[in-house]
Amino acid sequence: MYTLSAGLWEKFFKKKDYYVVIVGLDNAGKTTFLEQTKSRFVKDYGMLNPARITSTVGLNIGKVELNNTCLNFWDLGGQEDLRSLWSTYFDEANALIFVVDATRPDQFQVVSDVFKDVMSNELIQRIPVLVAVNKSEMEGAAPAAEVRSVLHDDNHSGDLAVLPVSALEGTNIDRCSFFIPTTMGTLVSKLDSWFERYEGKS
Ligand SMILES: Nc1nc2c(ncn2[C@@H]2O[C@H](COP(=O)(O)OP(=O)(O)O)[C@@H](O)[C@H]2O)c(=O)[nH]1
Ligand SMILES: [Mg+2]
């Protein structure tokens, strides 16, 4: 029994490298979010001037170290014709960040449909999902609760958090990164107690 549990543990939960997919509609602020995250956690990283961030066609990657955890971000292009490629990255993903532009309530129906589509993927249903309600520093930006109300996650069993952020100003960006190892930690401790109970019975 020990060998089985130790093997599973190593394979799924003890690894310190986490892969995080960043998705959301085009222009929501995904690349700015990643740049801001890198500028906060990568020593001597000079954030790109936001005015020089262009629309993402392929993929931007970023690696960030937090204590003994390494977060590998994949920032994917959000244009309609690129969205079908997102799921090819879901296989490896340990967590997902969904970025919403809070200043565009006219897009919330599309956001709702796209989010529903992402959450219908069974690989996503069991991993932590963080919704970054971006551009929240702007006057008139929708509050996180309003964005939450258009998002449906009925079949999702992983943790879900909805946070107002400003990728431009850096508000709450650290909390987004810490959400991932924190929820992973919860998963590990849940698994730990499950193994204890299971092994107690065997
Ligand atoms: N006001 C404001 N603008 C932002 C914020 N984050 C991104 N933007 C702007 O939104 C636009 C799209 O950002 P980008 O990161 O390229 O979006 P992406 O297409 O989702 O990767 C750019 O003009 C950014 O400067 C934010 O928190 N506040
Ligand atoms: Mg981009």
Write up what this structure looks like.
It comes from Diploscapter pachys. Interacts with SYS1. GO terms for molecular function: GTP binding; GTPase activity; metal ion binding. Pfam families: Arf (PF00025). Trans-Golgi-associated GTPase that regulates protein sorting. Controls the targeting of ARL1 and its effector to the trans-Golgi. Required for the lipidation of chylomicrons in the intestine and required for VLDL lipidation in the liver. There is one protein chain. The mean pLDDT is 86. Helix 5 (144-150) links the parallel strand 5 and strand 6. The protein is globular and about 55 Å long. It has a domain at 43-94 and 113-201: P-loop containing nucleotide triphosphate hydrolases (Rossmann fold, 3-Layer(aba) Sandwich), CATH 3.40.50.300. Strands 2-3-1-4-5-6 form a 6-stranded mixed β-sheet, with helices on both faces. The protein contains 6 helices and 6 strands. It has helices at 2-13, 30-41, 108-119, 122-125, 144-150, 173-201, and strands at 17-24, 59-66, 69-76, 95-101, 129-134, 160-164. The protein starts with a helix and ends with a helix. With 202 residues, it is α/β, with parallel strands linked by helices. Bound molecules: guanosine-5'-diphosphate (GDP) and magnesium ion.
